[in-house]
Design brief:
Blueprint: E1 29-33, H1 38-42, H2 44-50, E2 53-57, H3 67-80, E3 87-91, H4 100-111, E4 117-120, H5 126-143, E5 150-155, H6 158-162, H7 164-168, E6 174-179, H8 181-188, E7 203-205, E8 219-221, H9 226-239, E9 242-245, H10 254-267, E10 271-274, H11 277-286, H12 291-304, E11 310-313, E12 316-319, H13 320-339, H14 341-356
Parallel strand pairs: 1-2, 1-10, 2-3, 3-4, 4-5, 5-6, 6-9, 9-10
Antiparallel strand pairs: 7-8, 11-12
Helix pairs in contact: 3-4, 4-5, 10-11, 12-13, 12-14, 13-14
Length: 358
């Protein structure tokens, strides 16, 4: 077992010191693009203007004969694009693939200064993170980087879910974890072929009201991913890192996508993946607190003063627990307002109105 004192020492001579706290930067959506697709590559500057995070995908959805082209394309795009405040991430190939070592060597040494986060797929346990952690330190030293790259784990296997707490605390590099529902469904032998979202067969039914067991019995579709998302959120909160919902594969069903994203937001996720430009707008809407909620939160915070005791506002009791809840909303709004002028204006107006009723 490593000494806690060693945890924040570089794992290679000449590597940058590990971070001591993961910075919170707005990341309401992680927007995927295929770096081997020239038409898509040409749209990256426009994507970067809309999304909080753009991610060059090297793994699933990239054909085996396009892996090297995707890697080279990402290098070209990173060098040619000014991303401004938008983060650039990549998803490397899985650790058991023949491409992953070249992914890491090429990306860290050639564009490590442009990358923010490396997403590692199909993480099974802390040993996977330890391997990447050490290798990244060696490559950072070789490249002369002055800041460490962060690591994001994908929760895509039953073993990964069983080890999620250990994964979350495996390295100071750990930035967050995303749910990968499709691979996880296959790993668990779940009987669904959907990518995220619910399933009409996963339901509860109201009790019968008479002898007829079919008449008048309402059914309610349930969330296949509630347990996993909640466990992932707890693991991330305990480790001081960020949880994300993954993909919603039915691009046409924008209503169900919004519902799934909102469930994740309410449970504690900070963002979700977007696979199509229309999902960027959905994620931006869902993972930004509503202005009226921000106004209410700031009204409660002001009324609570030092945060102790209790007050009555509009007939509802507010105490130290509710003011903590309100600070979560207000702090997120503050962070988003710095990035989004329209949100800043809406939040300011809602706050002014709420405080006028205080």
């Amino acid at each position: 077992m490593r000494s806690p004192k060693d945890f924040f020492r570089p794992l290679a001579v000449g590597a940058p010191e590990p971070v001591r706290e993961i910075p919170f930067r707005p990341s309401r959506m992680i927007h995927f693009f295929d770096p081997s697709n020239e038409k898509m590559a040409a749209k990256v500057p426009d994507m970067a203007a809309q999304a909080d995070v753009v991610l060059g995908n090297l793994e699933d959805a990239i054909r085996a004969d396009r892996k090297e082209a995707a890697r080279a394309g990402l290098v070209r795009i990173a060098r040619a694009t000014d991303f401004g405040d938008t983060q650039l991430w990549t998803r490397i190939n899985s650790l058991d693939s023949p491409w992953v070592l070249d992914d890491l060597i090429t990306l860290v040494t050639e564009i490590g200064d442009k990358l923010d986060v490396i997403m590692v797929p199909k993480v099974e346990g802390p040993a996977d993170i330890h391997y990447v952690d050490r290798l990244l330190a060696q490559l950072e030293a070789r490249a002369g980087l002055d800041r460490p790259l962060l690591v994001h784990a994908l929760l895509e296997t039953a073993s990964g879910v069983a080890n999620v707490e250990e994964i979350a605390t495996a390295s100071p590099r750990m930035q967050g974890i995303s749910l990968g529902p499709a691979d996880l469904a296959a790993s668990r032998r779940m009987k669904t072929t959907r990518v995220g979202g619910g399933h009409p067969g996963y339901l509860v039914r109201s009790d019968p009201t008479g002898d007829d067991l079919t008449e008048g019995r309402t059914t309610y579709q349930q969330d296949l991913w509630h347990y996993t998302v909640a466990r992932m959120v707890d693991a991330c909160a305990g480790a001081g890192i960020l949880p994300y919902y993954g993909p919603f594969g039915d691009i046409a069903d924008v209503v169900a996508c919004e519902d799934q994203f909102r469930n994740a937001f309410l449970l504690g996720c900070v963002g979700a993946w977007s696979l199509h430009p229309k999902q960027i707008a959905i994620a931006k809407k869902v993972f930004s607190p509503a202005p009226e909620d921000v106004g209410w939160a700031r009204r409660v915070i002001e009324a609570m003063g030092d945060g102790t005791g209790a007050v009555m506002i509009d007939g509802k009791m507010q105490d130290d627990a509710t003011v903590k809840q309100c600070r979560v909303v207000a702090e997120l709004a503050d962070a988003l307002a710095l990035r989004d002028p329209d949100l800043a204006e809406a939040y300011a107006a809602a706050t002014k109105e709420a405080l006028a009723h205080g």
